[in-house]
Amino acid sequence: MARAVCQTPSALYYVHEDLQGRRELVLAAVNGQGLALFFASEAMRSDPDVVLAAARHCGLALQYASAHLRGTREVVLAAVRQHGLALQFASAALRKDSDVVLAAVAQHGEALKHASPSLAGDR
């Protein structure tokens, strides 16, 4: 099963619901394609290691992470370094964090539109 998920991460969609919560299977999927996090169980979307692996492969996978992890600096930094526009899925607190915003903008200039307006005066 893990081999199939490694070769075609979206195969996670077709596996039984119980298997979508198996850590090693979900890790194999997100290491192949970060957006496979979409098909993972809620428990896996809340697992810091799984979400971090997904974010490193595709920053936009952050949108499928639990709210708690979208507010975790390490996870969000990994996501915005991979794809700056992932900033839009970060918690409001991290959209105010100048280091996070700078990392996002360095990767994709348009990420600035997702930063907190409170940073507008910072130069």
TrEMBL record:
Source organism, top-level taxon: Eukaryota
A Pfam short name: DUF4116
Annotated ranges, domain DUF4116: 23-70, 73-119
InterPro entries named in the record: DUF4116 (IPR025197)
Protein name: DUF4116 domain-containing protein
Source lineage: Eukaryota, Sar, Alveolata, Dinophyceae, Suessiales
